[in-house]
Amino acid sequence: MSAKPDSANGRKNGLSRATIIAAAIDILDAGGQSALTFRALASRLSTGSGAIYWHVADKDALLSAAADRVLSEALAKVARDLDPVEGLRQIALSVFDVIEARPWVGSEIAREPWQPAMAELFEHCSARFADLGVPQAALFPCVSALTQYILGAAAQTAAAAQHGFATSDQSTVLDAIVDRWMDRNPVDYPYVHLLADQMRQHDDRAVFLVGLELIVAGAKAMSQRQDVRP
Amino acid sequence: MSAKPDSANGRKNGLSRATIIAAAIDILDAGGQSALTFRALASRLSTGSGAIYWHVADKDALLSAAADRVLSEALAKVARDLDPVEGLRQIALSVFDVIEARPWVGSEIAREPWQPAMAELFEHCSARFADLGVPQAALFPCVSALTQYILGAAAQTAAAAQHGFATSDQSTVLDAIVDRWMDRNPVDYPYVHLLADQMRQHDDRAVFLVGLELIVAGAKAMSQRQDVRP
DNA sequence: ACCTGAACACCGTTCAAGT
DNA sequence: ACCTGAACACCGTTCAAGT
User: Fold this and answer.
1) C-alpha span between A114 and A68 (Å, rounded)
2) A172 near B CB under 8 A
3) pTM flag (> 0.90)
4) Which of B129, B161, B107, B153 has the alpha carbon at shortest distance from A154?
5) CA-CA distance, A60 to B79, in Å (whole number)?
6) Given A63, A171, B27, B44, which residue has the most CB atoms within 10 angstroms?
7) Which residue is nearest to nucleotide D11 (CA to C1')?
């Protein structure tokens, strides 16, 4: 259907799949998901909206490719010679930081996991977990859970951050949410009230890292438990 | 803006916020996200599309309310008298199962976390974690990480499942992905190749539970480390 | 106060027609 | 083979007009 021989470049115009995706990324970075329109893209590339369909199957494919490109680049930069735990931290943070900087990547990943970049992430995490001593039989579920945490948590914080986008700054938005939660009966929701201040002052990145630490610690504990036997 | 006194019901027609949300849920369950249209909703309620705007601010609010309603109902059913670990398992599974049964809830949660039901989830998880011995100062990041895992992982598996929706059955879709991953060089991606079979045969729900176990184990380990001191 | 439905602005996608 | 741009079908949302 959309198989395109990668023969250098498009002919008539400078149009090519790569050019289109790059332009799409620019638009997404500048104006968010709602700004990416075939009309906007066409006018930025000085072409007709129909021309884009010659190189890209549809909007889903375009978004997929854009997110994948950005994620792949970020993952490629992660150092490969760190100790396991620090390696995992770097991988996770690189994903988190990309998604925080470009929230549209988070939404796209949430809508369509299993893009090619996932293989990169998967490979990278597997290697570190194996170094950590996780037995081969338990490797898949551990890695799978970790990547789901990384992508899911990053996507959510990005979505949350995106909501306080033009209305006001991030902290005010969070304050409003906390305030609404505080309306609930303290008898029924003691912990919501107890933790309100921690919630107000929390740092998304730090919380994200705690979750990573928990998973890694859990994996370590599990692998020890299983290594002791034989 | 959208403040509506809950005065029993709407007047002229049987229209009310609750009726509208219920109808929206029916449509979403039957036809997925793309089926929910103001026109479809209006015709199902035998009214004009404009009438809906009297009770609901816009489509985002409608989706929010629908997802929140479904999630709240699921969370309300979870037993509250279990031991901490089993309690956490039940909460997590109830969310996972809802999102698997109604994938549109997952997409909506990914797009707009912090809905009222989140307070429910947050409270519930906090109590179990506290029972588990997590010190108060560490409670927020732990609970936050856990809820992010639960929602993120559930949303992702739902999105993945949704993709093999009419094209073919779930396993075939996954096979196709694995096949594409296998095209990569085994020297550069040894773990992708090593774990391909595990990936092909994995069960989403079981993997989800492993992730939960890891986080809980990590939290337990962490709280012990800090409890030993004083 | 609540409902109606035509109208508006804006999408993604297609396709006959060009080069 | 690749590009053009008008046309199609379909959205969310608004609003004058009704009751």
Assistant:
1) 10
2) no
3) yes
4) B153
5) 41
6) A63
7) B37
